[in-house]
Amino acid sequence: MTSETWESYLDPGERLLWSGAPAQGVRVTRKGLGGSFASLFILAFALLWTAGAGLGILSGAWRQAEGVMFWFMLLFPIFGLPFIGLGLYGVFGHYFHDARQRARTRYALTDRRALIAIDGRERLLRSWPIRPETIVDFLPGPEASLRFATEEKVDSEGDRSHTRVGFERIAEGEKVMRLIRQIQTEAA
């Protein structure tokens, strides 16, 4: 999104102070590596299962099989394929999913609030006010993150979890943090 595009979402008198996007491309993190390592076991098991179940096809034994055993030898290896897919996603795919999500995400900071826009099947625009009491977590670095809101999620069993949300992996983290502090000071 360009600054002209953001202007259409601003309230009268609201000023755009900064706009940007998360770092682009595939990023490997410790958390991602942990998930990849755990998924490696699922992938290995699924590959062994499918290969073992497919021995009847590879050896040609299915030609002599009759009735239920014939169908068992042909169909049993297919049950491992979804697990191979899940394992591949867990080991490699989630990095590409994350990169795609970041490529569709844009950030903006105004003199009143923070905005996150995500392009997908539907465009999603989220907004959080920046007030003096807003708690801002700043993780400095070349790809800094600023988290200024807490999002509650409820899973299918009714368990609640809280996640901090904000601008992730931005190049101008220190500048944006100074702007947020300025907004908070002026609003006090």
Describe the secondary-structure layout.
Elements lengths: L2 H5 L8 E5 L9 H24 L1 H4 L8 H9 L5 H23 L1 E6 L2 E6 L5 E6 L7 E3 L4 E11 L5 E11 L2 H15 L1
Helix pairs in contact: 2-5
Question: Features of this protein?
Answer:
7 strands, PH-domain like, elongated, three-stranded antiparallel sheet, four-stranded antiparallel sheet, 2 domains, 6 helices, alpha+beta, 43% helix, 188 residues
Radius of gyration: 24 Å
Supply the CATH class of the largest domain. Answer: Mainly Beta
Separation of the first and last Cα atoms: 30 Å
Give the number of domains.
2
Estimate the global geometry from the Cα principal axes.
elongated
Here the CATH topology of the largest domain equals PH-domain like
CATH architecture grouping of the largest domain: Roll
Mean pLDDT: 89
Secondary structure: number of strands: 7
Class computed from helices, strands and strand pairing: alpha+beta
Taking the sheet with the most strands, its summary is:
4 strands, antiparallel
Q: Percent of residues in helical segments?
A: 40-55%
Strand order of the largest sheet: 1-2-3-4
Can you write the helix and strand succession as a string? HEHHHHEEEEEEH
| Low confidence ranges | none
Strand proportion, as a percent range, falls in 25-35%
Distinct helical segment count: 6
